[in-house]
Amino acid sequence: MKPLVLDPRTKFLIWLLTNVVVFCNTPRLFFTITMALYALLFLLACKAGSMVKLLIGYGIVLAAQCYLLPHLPPAVAMVFSTVTYAVLVFPCVMGGMYLLATTSVSQLIAAFRRMHVPESFTITMAVTLRYLPALREDVRHILDAMSLRQIKGLEQRLECIYIPILMGTAQTAEELSESATARGIDSPGKKSSWHTIGFHAQDVVVSVVFLAVCVVSIWSKGVLG
Amino acid sequence: MISFEGVSFTYAGKEDPALSHCSFQVRPGELILLCGVSGCGKTTVLKLVNGLLRDGDAGTLEGRVLVQGRDASQIPLWELSQTVGSVFQNPKSQFFNLDTTSEVLFGLENRGAAHEEMEQALSSATQACGIQKLLDRNIFQLSGGEKQRIACASAYAMGPSLFALDEPSSNLDADGIRMLREILTQLKHEGKTVLLAEHRLWYAADLADRIFYLKDGVLERRFTRAEFLALSDEERRTMGLRSLTEVPLPQPDPTLSDSSTTDGLSVQGLSASYGNKPVWEDVSFCVQKGEIAAITGTNGAGKTTLARCLCGLHKESAGKILWEGKPLSPKARKRASFLIMQDVNFQLFADSVLAEAMLGNDCSEEEAKAALQQMDLLPFLDCHPMALSGGQKQRLAVVSGTLSGRKLLLFDELTSGLDYLHMREVSRELQTLAAAGYCILVITHDGEFIRESGAKVIQWNNHMEGGAKPVKQSNLRRLLDYAGSRKVLLYLSWALSAISALAALVPFWSIWRILQAVLTAVPHYEQAQHLTQYGWTAVLFAVLSMLLYFAALFCSHFAAFRVASNLRKKLVRHIALLPLGTAEVLGSGKLRKIIQESAASTETYLAHQLPDLAGAVATPFGLLALLLSFDWRLGLLSLVPVLLGFVFMMAASGAHLTETMKEYQDALDGMANEAVEYVRGIPVVKTFGQTVYSFHKFKDAIDNYGKWVIEYTKGLRMPMVLYTAAINGIFAALIAGTFWFTDGTVSTAFLTNLLFYIIVTPAITLTLTKIMAMSENQVLVADALNRIDGILSLEPLPEPTTPIVPQDNSVELDHVSFQYEESNEVLHHISLRIESGQTVALVGPSGGGKSTLASLVSRFFDPQGGAVRIGGVDVRDIPKVTRMDTVSFVFQNSKLIKASILDNVRMAKPGATEGEIQRALETAQCGDILEKLPQGVHTVIGKDGVYLSGGEQQRIAIARAMLKDAPILILDEATAFADPDNEGRVQAALSNLAKGKTVLLIAHRLSTVSGADKICVIADGRIAEEGTRKELLQKNGLFSRMWREYQTSAQWKVGKGASA
Fold it and tell me: β-pairing, B2-11 with B19-26?
């Protein structure tokens, strides 16, 4: 089965609409509806695994809210009130995860360019996303080195992490910018994209569905008070 | 193309110019190699050409840099990038994108190129740099060499005519450098101009047109390729340049393989893996104090993993690491060793050199200063470590290692990007450290450095070929793959089984309700309500649970049968592809066992054990829910004795018991083996009138087993007693708990619960024991899958990519050497030629290699050395079908299958008519056999008492060979099993067969070789003598001796009055 591909802009749109549904305090039914819709989207994009993990996470948090919190002493329970909050905004979380799981960096950049987002933002975004895996590797090296040196004490450890990262980042930034400028990144003209993105029938359908849900939810909120 | 006119460049903030008065011209299509010591100005030149440095904030420029006739500083950088493509040193930080295709097209995207242009550029870049396999992949998963190729492709895609490459080989291993070299060759071929700055000269020196030598910013000397390559080693070293030719890695040093030293590091049988993926296995070596050892290997072989393992940063999956004779845990290793990483920046934490040296070490300031003095770092005491140069940072890291008192130092790639002088300095440092008693290991692929420092190479990667091995999936995963479309059924069976287990618990709930109803109605029992209702619910659910289980097993069996049949099909298909000889070597019995039984055991596992496991896992959860839902205090209380019981079991089955158990298993195996031997030996024993005493080995095995079984049982006595007591002591706990909780008064509800728990808890222990028993069966399946793997991993014979048809029917062996796996060489450089139509006989003592030779000709195996040619074409290049049609083989003992004679003979030529087959049988002298048989040609052999003798079978086989009518015939002792009567006929049949064909005849009986055109005597895998019979007899060598003995033996008689 071919996975369903949506234009990144559509994904942003439906995510925005979900946010509206959640933060306008519409009836809880619509929360469930949006979650179900996202679950369907996940399945259609053949990412059932991620969806199951998300749902399990949701289940755990929900169970904690229902069964655990009432039994805890009030002081402790207040600390965990964020749990309740997480349950509430879960549709937005699902939306965000869907976006991240199904969009590659290049597609994102292409979408930004089509949306006429300023280059400076696009490039910053791209470099950040690209830098994260490299950063992960660097941190691993640093932690290895630290464990070899037997550095004790939390504050000393924190101190010891951030300088090498800083230096490493500075070095990488310089090399990266050299490499990018040597390939014409500051070219004034309009940039093109290898990855073609575009609106297709599925984008229209999905957007319409989400729009409908959003509108109905706001209307029913007004009606039901 | 490029023109430097009196160029001087000084970096901002520095006093000395990086380049002084450089002037040169580069013509289009030239490859210029820039070389010199570090800091000579190579990188500056490159950056001036590609526009990254220009007059302004970065520094001051004098003179002019012209690219294609235009002043480079006047052209905006993005425009210049269209003409100059750049590749930098560090593969990790050159990439803007995360996937390779976008990266290659990055430049074009920036330029706003149209889609068609991008497609064209992509394909041409892919062609030029050979990156077909690397497209559309995550860059972070590529190796260093592959990343550099992508970088080259990215520069190439923009279509520049000039390339500026800044030390691109720094982080690459030998393979990566070779790939780079290929790209350079391609660029040259296309007429691109290339400026290459390098330390590692050997891979580019013979590609360069001119070589520029820079020193302190001045272009001192210019060489042509010939002049440069003619430089002597002395001159080159004075110039501070690395070797001009590749220095190969030296052979591994055998003194390091003996891993039993107690002075220093000793590694025994080490294996490591990432998750389930093994990286390398069974590594053993030792490095003594005062030695420098080198760990080499291609990228991805796992060198860094080995280093991390030795440091304790990565836990090994098997094996031991000993330091000074004592095994070290990973934590201890962290304290005993120190790793200086490739990028030292990650290891420097403090804000001054002194603080860095003392960080984490308890040493005094004087000691620290003394160590720094030794490494020439004393002038920099108060500097920030990041302000030091690369080499100085490395030395600082070494100091912090040595000050911590650790004696084992590991270095990860410490010479990448170093020029000759620095490399020599580093090797001198290492030698000093070694002399001071440190144990030093270096990970490197720098052959020159190894030579310079006198490091010894460790033989460690002889077990795994470097590179990613296929991911070893879990056994269950693989079985699931074989299930194909019926995989769903397996999942379904587990779900149903689990539900059935849960449904089986519902009756307990009914019991509780009944109890409750009864106790509420006390003392008027008759008034208890709804009893029958609860009763029927219990029955209903019990029946439901059974039905569900039935359904579950139904599904699982369906799926399991499919798996077993798929496994068998795959195995058989694979075996058909293997070289003919492999089946012989493995043995048909073993193969049969694997195909039949191993596949069957997977079936039991999938069909029965897994659903049971699913049920057994679901039950505790259900039980737990049940227990805790009514009264959690009593529930927990009833679990406590269970836990206690398990604790007793674990504690008591300590090391001693595991040992006893192992002895017990061994004794059991031993007894089983001896029993088989006993049964096999009975006929012999009976014939020779021996007594049972000859089976004393068997008796010993039984006694041994008896002894260990008793030991094992005794060992388990105490744990079992305690365990059983604990489990059954739940009641005691519950009663005690009752008293404690209720202070004398008992409510009905409580009583209900109590009674319930008393009834339910035995069920818990039952299921838990069932789960424990499950794990045993895992082992069986693993074993079965291993065996199956053993076959599937055998290499099928490679088919030729460009098949060639043989020209004639000659056979030639050209310096062929061969050995069977795990044994000595059987054939040593044999060369033999048989012309078309010739008959050549091979004779010689047993084990000389005659049959091996014959099997090589028909490609049963591939020789390790030399080549076998049929009709002038190497056997490996002949397509299988042609080869099978060209060569015919008649074995020593031919096998006929259980089918009619007609079908047996028809095997040679599937479309043959009955007439053809009859003719073949006639010519093979089988007429008398056919007369004997009830249904003639249609008689099925091997059934209903119809058997043929050896000689008769042989004649049928010859008929088969005749039907095939292949031009080359190999007869391997074809008359071995023939009795005198048959022999005459078989001989006649053979001579009919051999008419006009090229024949290779192997014989023990010298009578058969008389008519051969040429006789070769093969002894000890070599041709001892060659020639016609007459010639050999005249030579009076091996053959004539054999002939004389044959003559003598032909006259032997057995019986009274026999003469010698």
Answer: antiparallel
